[in-house]
Structures are given as C-alpha cells and as structure tokens.
Amino acid sequence: MAKLHLLYLLSFFILIACKVDTEQKTRKPEIVYEVFVQSFRDSNGDGIGDLQGLISKLDYIHDLGATAVWIMPFHPSPSYHKYDVSDYYGVHADYGTMEDLEQLIAELHKRNMKFIMDFVVNHTSAEHPWFVESVTSRESPYHDYYVWRDYDSVQNEINKKTTTFDSDNITQWHPGNDDKDRYYGFFWKGMPDLNFDNSNVRNEIYTIGKFWIDKGVDGFRLDAAKHIYPDDRFDDTRLFWEEFTDKMKLMKPDILIIGEVWSDPATLATLFKGLPSLFNFELTRAIPQMINTGDKHAFVNSYNSISSAYHNKDVPFDDAIILSNHDMTRIRSTLNHDIEKSKIAASILLTLPGTPYIYYGEEIGMLGTKPDPQIREPFLWGDSNFKDTSWMVPVHSIPGQVTPVQEQSNDPLSILNHYKTWISLRKQNPTLAFGELNMIHHDHQDLLLYSINDQQNTYIIAHNIGSQTIPYSLPAKSQIISHHREDKKEETFHLLPFSSVVMTIKE
Questions:
Q1: Dmax of the chain from CA atoms?
Q2: Cα separations (Å) of 225 from 129, 193, 205, 242, 404?
Q3: Are 470 and 313 in contact (CB under 8 A)?
Q4: Are 327 and 369 in contact (CB under 8 A)?
Q5: Cα–Cα distances in Å, from 481 out to 100, 422, 460, 505?
Q6: 323 within 8 A of 288, measured Cβ to Cβ
Q7: What's the rounded Cα separation, in Å, for the pair 362 and 471?
Q8: What pLDDT, on a 0 to 100 scale, did the predictor assign at position 475?
Q9: 117 and 221 in contact (C-beta within 8 Å)?
Q10: How many beta carbons lie within 10 A of that of residue 85, not counting itself?
Q11: Mean per-residue pLDDT, 185-206
Q12: With CB atoms 3.0 to 4.6 Å apart as the test, which of 36, 166, 247, 433 could cross-link to 262 if both were Cys?
C-alpha cells in the first residue's frame, strides 16, 4: 500500500509538472496599448475623440500588434482627463453611450484582444453624489465615505506644505462648508479621498468592480494605488489590495490587475500578492537616461537592483514596462526629439521580460512635455475621412514635427514600422517576454548585451546605444533572427549606431 501511495503521489506531481510546462509553452506575450479617448479619434466631427472613433481604429491597433487596450477613464467627470469620477457606472456623454462601450468590448474580443479599464479607486470627484451629501450633512451615512477631521487636529499637517513624487499638491486638507472641518484630498480639493476604513466604501468598490467584470472587462489599471491609506499606513494599503484582488479573482479568475505605485523596487515587491503587476517606473527613467548619456553601467546596475528586489519575493508577478504614459514627458521629447534614439528605446523595451505598455502616439514619435494637456495631444492620422481631434490646439505633436500614420505606413524605415517589426519579433519568440534576463559584460561602452533564456530557448540581445558603428563577433552556434541594420562579414557583423540585433543559440 505504501508503494502504491508513493506511485500515486509521483504520478500526481508528474501531471502537475506537465500541466505547468504546457501552460508555459502556450502562454502568449501581452502588448498593451494605452489610449486617451478624447485625443484618439473623432467619429462625429465635434472635435472630441469618442468610443466610436476608437472602434473605427481597432484594426490599426491590432495591426500594430497590441493584444490589449487600456483606456484612460471614460466615466462622467467635470475634468477633461476624467480622473475625478462623478459616476462609476456611467459613460461620459462626450465619449458616447453604454451601448458604445459594450460594442467596443465586443469588437476587442472579436479580435482576441483584451479590454483594460482605468479604475480610479483612491478618490472621487467633488461632484460625486456621495461627496455632495457628505458635505451637506454630518448625519448622512455618506459623510463617513470620506476622511473628515476638525481643523485643530490637522492644523500641523496643513502647515507642512510639502509635495510628493507623484503629486505637486502642497495642501491635502481642504475646507468643507465652513472652516471647522477639513476633508482629505491627496491630489487636490476636487478629488476627495475615499475612507477605506469604512467597510461600506470597500464594498462599494467591489460592487463597481463586479459591474464592469459582468460587462466584459478583462482587467483593471488601478490609479494612485499607493494612496488607499496615508503613507504611514502602508501595511493597510497592502492588505486592501490583497482583499480587492481576491474578490475580483472570485468573479473572474484570469482578471488582469495592474497597479500604479510610484516607489522604490523593494517597496513594490511587497505588493505583488495584491497587485500582481506594477508599472516599473525605475526602468522608465533608466532607459532614456542610458541612451542620452551613453552610460550603460547605470542602466545595468539599475536593472540588476530591480531584478534582485523582485525575484527575492516568492510571489508570481508581471513586470509592467513602459517608456512613457499620460503623466510623463513623451519618450521622444525625453530623447531630444531624436527618432533613431526613440527606435532603440523601443527595441530595448520590446526585448525585456514583462508586459510592454505603449502610450498612444509613441509608435509614431509623438512629442510632448508638461503641462499635462500637452502630453495628451491629438493623435495624427493624416487621412481624409475625418480631421484629427481638435478639442485642444496642439503645441508639440504637429505636422512637420510628427509624421502622420498615413505617411509612415508606406515608409519601411518609419518608427511606426519599427514598432510593428519588434512587436512581431517579441510575439513570435515568447521567451523574450517570459524568460530570465542576465546581463553580459562587454568592454565596449556603447554595447548593451544580455541573454534571456527559459527551459527551451536561449537568446542573446545586443543594442548599440551610441553614435558609432560597433564590430561584433557572433557567439558560437548563434543565428540572427531579428530585423536589423548591419554589414555582415563572415563571423563578424557591424552593428550600426542606435540599432539592435537578436540572436538565438542553437544547440
């Protein structure tokens, strides 16, 4: 009986191992495309991008190679960016109707693409009915939906006048109807923070999540995820996200959860149980810094530090890697408008493990620096069906500075086609997304070299981050598989400035 029991256990573990191995082989890389609907495509001529406009361009996003679309908030809101939500169950009238949103989700699923919704949990709009009633009456149950204190108890905090990395707001406590009470709004007075010590608030958030999962949402990008509780209660924030994710997974086991947390890698790694994917803002800083300065060593040290912090946690996670997003200077502007530098930034991003997030317009070299509206300017289509969105007058991304899609599509050397090529390479070689990266030392200061491997494959990736051609000898048993610009000569090729090559090692 003991032998039979041992054989049974052995068979069980073999089956589990085979299942895991099969799952790894069938797992497909995700490429997420971030859209600001207001600037993307206008379907009715009012100058404002809308859901029908986005639907009309899904084939473009699919052809680029994206497997998922994340759209910035689409709910009713008093602000153009809509990060101050006044109705979690609605669609902003400028963008369309609930039927339009349901059609968008259906059209994405028809193309085997996922829909990721920006979920603003930290705060609501000051115009949200909950807050309106919270201000009106202390006796209302909604008063405790927000964080209220009397003036005397928060006077010292009001006088601090400090800012944080992810907010330039110097006053977090704001007056209500009189000077006696203050409510907490981390970002500004129009965004009052919800009180997550109130179980009714937590349940409201879970109910909203269920509503959208039932609508077909495949994932949530969680805004301001660090600020559920004040910084001195970070453990409570961590526990909330663990509870949130557990409840969402009960409704949809494969739900995608991506958190926005601006913090150091060691802190991020403590959140993986509740936020299994987090944006790697450290990497976002390190890539353009390396390209601009030519200092690969700082990038290598930064990447190794991040990797060490992440892998020391015995919790599955997915590294959300980006070059820029709606809160940052656009990557081409960070790289001094240089298209070739922008191309190699894309090549580096698309050959690192994790899930790349591409900010709309990045693939056509759009430009933009703060203030925020100027990093969210209208997308340049350049076709004759409709004019580009005109809700604002663009400053940076204008014809002459940025080449529209229609012109780039027919140019094999355009940055648009560069993105398509490297996205396709990544999707054809999943090891690049899921494998383990190890830096390889090379004496040439401009040659960034690393390997990525899993149980089946080994790849070597070489990036020339400098302005001079680099001779490079092919490793033994290697085969070049990437589209690249090089002058091949026997076992050595010349890697041109700001170009890359991917090699596979054949045993």
A1: 82
A2: 23, 12, 13, 12, 35
A3: no
A4: no
A5: 42, 11, 10, 10
A6: yes
A7: 30
A8: 85
A9: yes
A10: 28
A11: 96
A12: 166
Do 311 and 354 meet the contact criterion of CB atoms below 8 Å apart? Answer: no
Name residue 502's beta-bridge partners: 461
Residue-averaged pLDDT of the chain: 90
Encode pLDDT of 234-266 as tens digits: 999 999 999 999 999 999 999 999 999 999 999
Q: Which two tokens stand for residue 403?
A: 């080449």
Give Cα 114 to chain centroid, integer Å.
14
Q: Which residues are catalytic?
A: 223, 260
In this model, does residue 2 exceed pLDDT 50?
no
Return the pLDDT at 14. Answer: 42
Q: What is the 3-state secondary structure (H, E, C) of 327-370?
A: CCCCHHHHCCCCHHHHHHHHHHHCCCCCEEEEECCHHHCCCCCC
Question: Residue 174 — pLDDT band, cuts 50, 70, 90?
Answer: confident
Which pLDDT score is estimated for 152?
Answer: 65
DSSP run (H or E) holding 118: strand 114-120
pLDDT at residue 484 above 80?
A: no
State how far the Cα of 457 lies from the Cα of 24, in Å rounded to an integer.
12
Ramachandran quadrant class, 419 (left: phi over 0; alpha: psi -120 to 50; beta: rest): alpha
Q: Does residue 36 carry a pLDDT above 50? A: yes
> Parallel, antiparallel, or unpaired for β 478-480 and 447-453?
unpaired
Compute, in degrees rounded to 10, the torsion defined by CA atoms 17, 23, 29, 34.
-110
Residue 201 structure tokens: 């608030």
Rounded to an integer, the average pLDDT of 325-332 is 97
Residue 386 confidence (pLDDT) above 80: no
Cis peptide before 29 (omega within 30 of 0): no
φ, ψ at 215 (rounded to 5°) = -80, -10
Other beta carbons within 10 Å of 167 = 15
Q: Strand 114-120 to strand 68-71: parallel, antiparallel, or no bridges (unpaired)?
A: parallel
CB 11 within 8 A of CB 19: no
Q: What angle do CA 461, 462, 468 make, to 5 degrees?
A: 170
pLDDT value at 16 more than 80: no
Amino acid found at 401: Q
Q: How many CB atoms lie within 10 A of CB 129?
A: 12
Tokens of 122: 């930290």
**Which amino acid type is present at position 504?**
T
pLDDT in tens, 332-370: 999 999 999 999 999 999 999 999 999 999 999 999 999
Q: What is the pLDDT of residue 269?
A: 93
As a whole number of angstroms, the distance between CA 207 and CA 209 comes to 5
The side-by-side arrangement of strands in the sheet containing 478-480 is 436-439, 447-453, 458-464, 500-505, 478-480
Burial class, 348, CB count within 10 angstroms (exposed 0-12 / middle 13-18 / buried 19+):
buried
